[in-house]
Amino acid sequence: MLELKNISFSYNKQNQEYEFSLKNVSFCLNRGEKIALMGANGSGKSTLIRCINGLLKPDKGQVIVDGVELVFPDTVLEIRKKVGMVFQNPDNQIVTTSVEREIAFGLENIGTGKREMDFKVQKAMEQFHLGKYRTRPPHLLSGGERQRLALASVLVMEPDYLILDEPTSLLDPAGREEILSTITAQAENEKKGVILVTQFPEEALEFDRVVILDSGEIVMQGTPDQVFSETDKIKSVGLDVPVKTELGKYLKELISGY
To answer: What is the pTM of this model?
Structure first.
């Protein structure tokens, strides 16, 4: 289980009257569970996921992964082995000169044997349709292809938890659906916990739970049906409601009017 307990964080610690970008954020993520994390720009989503993975140090609160508390610097590497993270901009994490080497990079760093590494790299390239680009430099790939590469290079490490910061933002609708299907299948089949930061409410419908941030605080949390049924509240924090939900509400009102 991944646990967040009263996480607070501020970027402006020099000012004695600084405001927190995160304020007492708490929730749990179980293995095999999928959480969609939503909120308007500036709501604290990216700050929160960076606190989870040890890229930022919370000012208050605890991050606990499978019983191990995130303590700087003692347990940061241990936590990062369990928690894989994909950034919104794939260029922030691509470091090598070819697709194949990029996917193999993390495996090489932990001393994976060549036969096992070759098998895992080949499987990842097939899974994310990157095989024909095996020797291509990543900077020559399209934005969507680089997002696929970033996902492949994290998933090949087989983390227990996945933190995904809008990993499909550069893909077309068909590509988004395909990638999400891959991610959700892995979560279910391999019991991985997934947190997906997304601006697409339709994506959130496919997840077990939705957590909504506003001004650094959790303002809504529950199943997609529970959360999106409160359409006025959703819109008040600058988010859209799934078309399916809007249509359902309209039809109910239409029927009740007769």
So the answer is: 0.90
